[in-house]
Amino acid sequence: xxxQHETSGNDDRDxxxxxxxxxxxxxxxxxxxxxxxxxNACPECGSVLTLRVWSSDLxxxxxxxxxxxxASIFGIAVFGLIVSFTALRDPELPPxxxxxxxxxxxxxxxxxxxxxxRLVRRRHxxxxxxxxxxxxxxxxxxLLTVSCLGAMIAxxxxxxxxxx
Length: 164
Known about the structure:
Largest sheet: none
Radius of gyration: 26 Å
Order of helices and strands: HHHHH
Number of strands: 0
Shape: elongated
Oligomer: single chain
Mean pLDDT: 85
Strand content: under 5%
Helix content: 55-70%
Number of helices: 5
Structural class: mainly alpha
């Protein structure tokens, strides 16, 4: 009796061969013509080929926009947090100011870390939303990111001005 995985592989190969029979499809790697191919590998480059189902409704752009904007401000907040630890050693700063700087960046890092984790873990839920809602969520992420970046820049400006 044939192995189940072996049978499945043969079935997949047969389905792919039937699909390519009489069709002018190209290898996604080397663009070699796969017309009437009988195996599951490109004869030119050797890439293993599979036949997949895809949905034209799948739109990753709003999710990627949301993730990239949140990840960028998260990275800035983590960098600010690391740099702000040097403020803990600055004897010229009052203790309250030292911990305020660290707390400021720690708060932003925690907020955006949570949002980023939620976006990544619930990606499938995000992608099931309507496109309008996806773009609305991405827009909120952009607005939140720009607002927090503005707050970070404003805090630096206030610090510089207060030192004068």
